[in-house]
Amino acid sequence: MRDLRVRWALEEAALPYRVESVPFGERKAEHFSHQPFGQVPWLTDGDISIFESGAILLHLGERSAALMPTDPRGRAETLEWLFAALNSVEMASLPWSIFQFSGLTGDAPGWKGLEAFLNSRLQHMESVLGGREWLAETFSIADILMADVLRLVDRFDGLAEYPACRGYVARATARPCFVKAHADQMAHFAAAD
Asked: Tens digits of per-residue pLDDT, 49-83?
């Protein structure tokens, strides 16, 4: 579902786009030519093809001041939080979420370590988000990525003890562009079924 990040960013930037579906099962050589791991999303922008949601968001951020501040300090903050979302928070949240989704919590080997790792990251995010509305000076691609990462944790009630994180996700997902992007994605999935 990382393609929602891209759709959301395109809505925030008011950039025109169209969504194409790919088969869930067998992936053809054309697919691998855009995404070497056979995943989604990838973005085609003119003669440029970019894969990985973080790289796509960075590309879109460079195209729109609505997604990335233009001043050096704001840009640097956006970039560091974009990478923190991917490398510090999602690294902890994704395995935890997979265990949750699979029902492998409680006494499952590795569960307590994953939970402690995620809670360590969430404690740090709680102190950061307790004092600011957005990660950088204004809403940016960093917030799209971080809110989406934390949204998955919240889906499994993992933010119950982190009110600043939960409030941040609520603020981000209440934005009209997220609401539209999410509704459009759900409609796209429903039409494909």
From this structure: 898 889 999 999 999 999 999 999 999 999 999 99
Helix axis angle, 176-192 to 3-13, nearest 10° = 130
> For residue range 120-150, what is the model confidence (pLDDT) as tens digits?
999 999 999 998 999 998 999 999 999 999 9
Q: How far are the Cα atoms of 65, 98, 151 from residue 93, in angstroms, in the given order?
A: 29, 9, 10
Q: What 3 state SS string does 12-26 have? A: HHCCCCCCCCCCCCC
- Which DSSP helix (H) or strand (E) runs through 50? strand 48-51
Q: How far apart are CA 94 and CA 190, in angstroms?
A: 25
SS3 state of residue 42: strand
Q: What is the pTM of this model?
A: 0.92
Backbone φ, ψ for residue 158 (5° rounding): -75, -10
Vertex 106, ends 103 and 107: CA angle to 5°?
110
Distance from chain centroid for Cα 7? 11
